[in-house]
Amino acid sequence: MGGRDTDIVLLDENGIRCDGRKVNETRKVTIKAGVLKNANGSAYIEFGDNKILVGVYGPRDVHPKHMSDTDTGILRCRYHMAPFSVGERKNPAPSRREVEISKVIKEALEPAVMLKEFPRTAVDVYMEVLQADGGTRCAALTGASVALADAGIPMRDLVAGCAAGKAADAVILDVNNEEDQAGQADLPIGYMPNLKKITLLQLDGVLTPEEYKQCIEIGIDGCNQVYEIQKKALQDKFFATGEKQ
Amino acid sequence: MSGERKRHVIPGEVITSGSYRAEQNTIQVGDNIVSTIVGLSDVHDGSVRVIPLTGGYMPKDDDLVIGKISSHSSLSWTADINSCYVGMLPASDVFGRDYSSSSDDMTAKLAKGDLIAARIVNADMTRDPLITISGRELGKIDSGELVKISPNKVPRLIGKRGSMIQMIESSTNSQVTIGQNGLLVVSSEDPNGLLKAIQAIELIEEQAHVANLTDQVNEMLESKSE
Amino acid sequence: MSDGLIIDQLKKNQILDLLKEGKRVDGRQFDEPRKLTIDIGVIPKAEGSARARLGDTEVVAGVKVQPERPFPDTGDKGMLICTAEILPIAHPSAETGPPQPPVVELARVTDRGIRESGMLDMKQLVLEKDKSVIGVFCDNAVTDHDGNLFDACSYASTAAINACKIPKYEMQDEKPVKIEGEFTEPPITTLPVSVTMAKIGDFILVDPTIEEWGIMDARITITSNSDGNVVALQKGGSDGFSQEELIKCAELSVKVGSKIREIIKQSK
User: Fold this and answer.
1) Which alpha helices (H) appear in chain C, and where do they start and end?
2) 3-class SS at B140?
3) pLDDT tens-digit map of B163-180
4) pLDDT by residue (tens digit) across B129-165?
5) B57 inside domain
6) How far apart (Å, rounded) are the C-alpha atoms in residues A76 and B78?
7) What residues make up the domain containing A183?
8) Structure confidence at residue C6 (pLDDT)
9) Is residue A95 part of a domain?
10) Same-domain check for residues B137 and B161
């Protein structure tokens, strides 16, 4: 991304971004745990205009058998976009981009999940993007770890996701679609808030060493904010007392 | 009681720190004992564990489970026991030692979709758990209705020394066979009793985490059926 | 998928015993579909969208509208394509990878119901004959599976297309250019609605659940339009229907379909 020409003002003179946020502010995030009937665990996340459904199945039998491991359970992830989730209709077949994102999300979750006690099984995480608006991988990762906890998969920590980046020469938190298209850098982060470990990191764009430092710093701060919403989603489902379901 | 108050915890949350033993569903991270699951923390006599509120069934030796026959080979049946592992029921368990794959018809005894009450004989996880249907209260189930609850809620359904399940059975005139794997078979001569027993079980499934559960269930059982 | 589902023997006996008494396990009449709720506009970025919930079966349909180069032999008509896929979140038996025959059938039956009814007046979706036409793509994503995906996809598709907005385009140098912020209503001629019936023994059941689906002998999906005519059919399963049964099924589909159509109309 090289700062494509656009007539959108990414940052105005008061430091307000194109969607009304300040530079260090995330979009509105809402998460609901346990939304699907058939899945062992599930979550629905809205991260700004991103809308993502996550379903977890497992631990369960591995098919094909040769993929199974006699010493541990395995984690499998699929990130997939609905054809209607983006501006121009997407071909329903998985793209190379989706395959790569599935892989980086799997590797972001693997440090958290503990599958040693389920040898020869698999845990499947399916992330279905119903509407995309920039930052889907962080949103999907965030929803996935709530769905895994909902399924009762043992985990060392949750993993929260949030991107940092650069637009109009400013370091910004939680890059939206316009900023991703017309901005200068996008740095998605996945973070385990209690263990304080970054498990997903990519960069698209150019940052100076100082901007890079700042991006990681505010990115972690964003992840910590997202973590509080993850926590609340699980508390609402499991610990809410009284009548409200 | 030397225990601290039980707390709701989620994966990654620190339960306590200091010199405690990390037991079920917890790990030690530096000085801290951390939960690995959504549940209730239980600090007791220098050890910490978390009672899970979600998650699947892991087979344990001697557990009574309810299974659904899913397929068979010439030597054994496999049963879906609501777990990540399928139960293996050897043909010899039903036909005895003289079992012969050429003369004995396995599907005549147990066919796909049949329900069985079985006991776990061996669950060492290196292969699928071995189950048996010979024994008291075991075997093919011919009547009743299958109900599924979260395996973690089975202890709550049974109650202290069986108090909860006895209350349900006696006030609804029904019998409940409880599989540790969360599958139950409820039967009753009285259709209303059956309905009521299932409703009571569903209430426990939904409200397992609340304190006055026994009162709620009692209230429900005593209310007139609609 | 559901074709390989094993229903436990007790449930199967219970379903069959109740049918003889004229009852279904969930208390419905034989000709009564499950509760249908439709929410439109659930995917605001799509030109049209609907979430249909039929009992515990749930489908999200999204409509994308964009200019396309027409097929050489139909340069005077717009393009309409409906697809369906069962997302792996929907059921433990749903698979990733290339679509299996039951999923292909689902997609084709969904498409046929919309297409053959002539729901959209395709002649009105031409920007410049033989050069550029408007393409309407309606993609169905099954998110929760409790049987009878055919009807859930039919209702989601019809509701989403009925509620969609067609962006305005202008031809400039033989290329279509979108006029931002300007839309027209879709050229709707009729509202097609499918009704699927399962045959279990001699009983015909409207809108089977996944358990009834698991033990049925045969099924039939009949799509009718706003005038009460039959516009598409699909028989499935390993038994057959008698002539009388087929006539009864067609009547049922028109009767049940007209109530469903009202729900779809009101969702807009």
Assistant:
1) 9-20, 101-116, 149-162, 210-215, 243-267
2) strand
3) 999 999 999 999 999 999
4) 999 999 988 999 999 999 999 999 999 999 999 999 9
5) no
6) 25
7) 29-238
8) 81
9) yes
10) no
Q: List, as one string, the DSSP characters of A92-118.
A: SSPPHHHHHHHHHHHHHHTTTB--TTS
- Considering only CB atoms, which chain B residues are within 8 Å of C9? 111, 113-115
Of C64, C88, C146, the CB nearest to A84: C64
Sign (positive or negative) of CA dihedral C92, A148, A230, A137: negative
Same domain, B130 and B100: yes
Which CATH number characterizes residue A202's domain? 3.30.230.70
**Host domain of residue B194:** 145-222
ipTM value, please give it.
Answer: 0.90
Confirm whether B121 is domain-assigned. yes
Q: What is the pLDDT of residues A53-112, one digit of tens each?
A: 999 999 998 877 888 999 999 999 999 999 999 999 999 889 999 999 999 999 999 999
Which of B77, B115, B175 to mutate to test binding with chain C, by most C CBs within 10 Å of its CB? B115
B126 contacts in A (CB within 8 Å)? 70, 119
Query: Which of A63, A114, A117, A194 to mutate: most B Cβ within 10 Å?
Result: A194
Smallest CA–CA distance, residue A80 to chain C, in Å, is 9
Number of domains comprising chain B:
3
**B147 min Cα distance to partner chain C (Å):** 10
Domains and CATH numbers, chain C: 2-267 (3.30.230.70)
Q: How far apart are CA A111 and CA A126, in angstroms?
A: 18
On whether residue A71 sits in a domain, the answer given is: yes
Does residue B58 belong to any structural domain of this protein? no
d(CA B196, CA B221): 7
Q: What is the CATH number of the domain that holds B181?
A: 3.30.1370.10
Q: What is the mean pLDDT of chain B?
A: 91
Distance CA C194, CA C199 (A): 16
Contacts of B109 (CB under 8 A, 6+ apart): B94, B95, B140
B133 and B87 housed in the same domain? yes
Tokens of A27: 């979009």
Q: Cβ–Cβ of A83/C139 closer than 8 Å?
A: yes
Do B176 and B134 fall within a single domain? Answer: no
